[in-house]
């Protein structure tokens, strides 16, 4: 018999925020290979080990293929009809008892733009609340807040192509070689060919090993360091005075503040030698085309938004953003669609396209399209949802694609919140730590089975296309939201994902030029894209900043210490982050047979600390904070700074997030994953 034909499906990687374009080859409904797309706008024929090989999870025997409902305390298989009936009854009961604000939903980067759009529409239209948030709360919410305050829009200022043309790169709190491998490889090429590199990272990893200057501040002292760099820019006449005069606001206030941050004092606050602060400032200050690229080492702090703003100050002082020369301020988004989840309005204070729920113009536009009044009181953020559940004020919590019990900080308290909530609904691929605690579990679709779009780290909408049929009774988040709405007797419209993006384009002027048909025809398109006949804006602020007066805003925010500092009882600082072979909670990469490259989590610590605390390489060690403890295998490495330990959060079994603190960014509630005071005990 002849073999079935090979099918080629062009789609977008569902792992990190680089958004590599991939070609998935299937035969008879099974993947035979995943190839990087030679024409991919970011990856250009490259992909990393995750995108190419971490797809075996779709056929894992652990995959959920039927709904589950809790009966007599146990999760048991059920029909979709029974599961939906249970969800609908729970939602009605929650609203009857506590009103619409007794219901909350957590959406995520695992969902497409169209799914995120539909979730937030469901919450606002069918329930009548703004209690909808997404996983950016845990990573780049400070970027959205900080970049909006500094420049006017919630995305990075430039395309990655712009960044590649820089002659000096200020890379802060990011390890793209592991967390964004294709970007890491492209940046490494540029550095090896002469682009000057200033790396700011407590650890000596990845690109930092190739830096002209490597600054290793104490975790939690970013704002002081950025002010030290800004101080030198001003003191040495490296600021662009004409740009500041024409296009910036806030210089007198910032100048006054920066007087308190001379390099000698910054050295005391941050641990970075004063001479290195000066050298780094001169490199950035004298470059023709400087670019800033940063990651979660800037945002996941008690003062993460201040960190973003203090970093943006440097680009403004140099006139190295928008109308000026240079390539701006660019966050590396960790997850495939974390930018898009926020763009689509899965936020408690923003509608699709970032119109505020308190803005009558934005709500009037949404109300006209949706046909019902939009609630105008900002909803709960994710940590507030958990607090409300623990306080008995939440009757139903719907969680889509997030394993909050594994990935959110102070995980013991998160589990308490779920246990206290009368109805927890979870849409998942596997029986995650969160799903185990749910009352209803709906079997979800993976990125290889979905139709829609993602937005990557440099604001490009790209098409996601299904390469595989859905297993068993699993359904897309798009279908599940429609089904729950129908069970409540609500018709959400937007029958297809293409319909949803078309409707979103009517609600949000910045997406008005986008459609599936156009993306199919033209390929990736960046936002803002208000006109179907014009390209999107890959580089922002070419004519003016998007602030009310068109000027970039300098921020005079003082340095304040992190939520926890090492002391006698807890003398070390724990920093968490990513490893190259795995992705987030590891639910997909750990279940992939062809990816057994990194089988367990490790606690990295400096050899001198290992001697001090009697810890041996390769042996188990207990890491303990004021919040909890976890057991990991010690790895002695000089990548770790003295006085600091590092581990990932890819292995829920090690329960690292029972250790991390509940401190969070003052502005946005983003957790301070990067600073927890801990101590070590050999097992
Ligand atoms: Fe590209 Fe990131 Fe996917 Fe790797 S994980 S293939 S770098 S999008």
UniProtKB/TrEMBL annotation:
Question: Per the record's keyword annotation, is 4Fe-4S included, yes or no?
Answer: yes
EC number, UniProt record:
1.17.1.9
For the keyword Ribosomal protein, the answer is: no
Sorted keywords for this record are: 4Fe-4S, Iron, Iron-sulfur, Metal-binding, Oxidoreductase, Repeat
Broad EC category? oxidoreductase
Provide any one GO MF term from the record: formate dehydrogenase (NAD+) activity
Q: Which residues form the 4Fe-4S Mo/W bis-MGD-type domain?
A: 6-62
Q: Which family does it belong to?
A: In the C-terminal section; belongs to the prokaryotic molybdopterin-containing oxidoreductase family.
Protein name (Swiss-Prot/TrEMBL): Formate dehydrogenase subunit alpha
Q: Which organism is it from?
A: Microtetraspora fusca
């Amino acid at each position: 018999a002849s073999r079935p034909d090979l099918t080629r499906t062009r789609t977008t990687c569902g792992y990190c925020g680089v958004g590599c374009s991939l070609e998935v080859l299937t035969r008879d409904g099974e993947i035979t290979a995943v190839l990087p797309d030679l024409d991919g706008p970011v990856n250009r024929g490259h992909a990393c080990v995750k995108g190419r090989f971490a797809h075996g999870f779709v056929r894992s025997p652990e995959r959920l293929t039927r709904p589950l409902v809790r009966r007599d305390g146990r999760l048991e298989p059920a029909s979709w009809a029974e599961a939906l009936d249970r969800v609908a009854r729970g939602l009605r009961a929650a609203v009857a008892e506590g009103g619409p604000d007794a219901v909350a939903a957590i959406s995520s980067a695992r969902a497409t733009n169209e799914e995120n759009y539909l979730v937030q529409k469901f919450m606002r239209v069918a329930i009548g609340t703004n209690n909808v948030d997404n996983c950016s709360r845990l990573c780049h919410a400070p970027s959205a807040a900080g970049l909006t305050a500094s420049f006017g829009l919630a995305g990075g200022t430039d395309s990655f192509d712009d960044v590649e043309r820089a002659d000096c790169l200020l890379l802060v709190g990011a390890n793209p070689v592991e967390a964004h491998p294709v970007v890491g490889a492209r940046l490494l090429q540029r550095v090896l060919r002469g682009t000057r590199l200033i790396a700011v990272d407590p650890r000596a990893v990845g690109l930092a090993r190739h830096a002209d200057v490597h600054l290793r501040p104490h975790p939690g002292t970013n704002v002081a360091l950025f002010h030290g760099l800004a101080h030198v820019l001003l003191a040495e006449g490296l600021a662009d005075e004409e740009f500041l005069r024409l296009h910036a606001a806030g210089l007198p206030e910032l100048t006054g503040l920066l007087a308190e941050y001379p390099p000698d004092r910054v050295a005391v606050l941050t641990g970075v030698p004063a001479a290195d602060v000066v050298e780094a400032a001169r490199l950035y200050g004298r470059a023709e085309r400087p670019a800033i690229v940063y990651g979660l080492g800037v945002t996941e702090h008690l003062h993460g938004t201040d960190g973003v703003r203090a970093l943006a100050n440097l680009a403004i002082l140099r006139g190295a953003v928008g109308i000026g020369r240079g390539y701006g301020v660019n966050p590396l988004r960790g997850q495939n669609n974390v930018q898009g989840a926020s763009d689509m309005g899965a936020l408690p204070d923003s509608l699709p396209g970032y119109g505020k729920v308190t803005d009558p113009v934005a709500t009037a536009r949404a109300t006209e399209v949706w046909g019902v009044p939009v609630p105008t009181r900002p909803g709960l953020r994710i940590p507030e949802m958990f607090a409300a559940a623990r306080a008995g004020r939440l009757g139903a919590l719907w969680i889509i694609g997030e394993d909050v019990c594994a990935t959110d900080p102070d995980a013991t308290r998160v589990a308490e919140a779920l246990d206290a909530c009368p109805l927890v609904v979870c849409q998942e691929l596997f029986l995650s730590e969160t799903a185990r605690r749910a009352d209803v579990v709906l079997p979800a679709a993976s990125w290889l089975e979905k139709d829609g779009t993602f937005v990557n780290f440099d604001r490009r909408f790209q098409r996601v296309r299904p390469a595989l049929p859905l297993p068993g009774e699993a359904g897309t988040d798009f279908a599940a939201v429609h089904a729950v709405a129908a069970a409540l007797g609500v018709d959400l419209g937007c029958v297809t994902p293409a319909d949803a993006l078309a409707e979103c384009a009517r609600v949000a002027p910045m997406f008005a030029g986008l459609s599936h048909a156009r993306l199919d025809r033209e390929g990736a398109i960046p936002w803002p894209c208000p006109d179907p006949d014009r390209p999107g804006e890959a580089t922002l602020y070419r004519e003016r900043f998007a602030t009310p007066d068109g000027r970039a805003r300098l921020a005079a925010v003082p340095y304040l210490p992190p939520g926890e500092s090492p002391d006698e009882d807890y003398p070390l600082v724990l920093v968490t982050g990513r490893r190259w072979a795995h992705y987030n909670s590891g639910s997909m990469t750990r279940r992939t047979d062809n990816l057994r490259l990194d089988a367990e989590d490790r606690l990295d610590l400096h050899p001198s600390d290992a001697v001090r605390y009697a810890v041996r390489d390769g042996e188990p060690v207990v890491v303990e904070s004021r919040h909890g403890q976890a057991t990991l295998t010690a790895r002695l490495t000089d990548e770790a700074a003295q006085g600091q330990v590092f581990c990932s959060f890819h292995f829920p079994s090690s329960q690292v997030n029972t250790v991390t603190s509940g401190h969070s960014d003052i502005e946005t509630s983003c957790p301070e994953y990067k600073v927890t005071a801990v101590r070590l005990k050999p097992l």
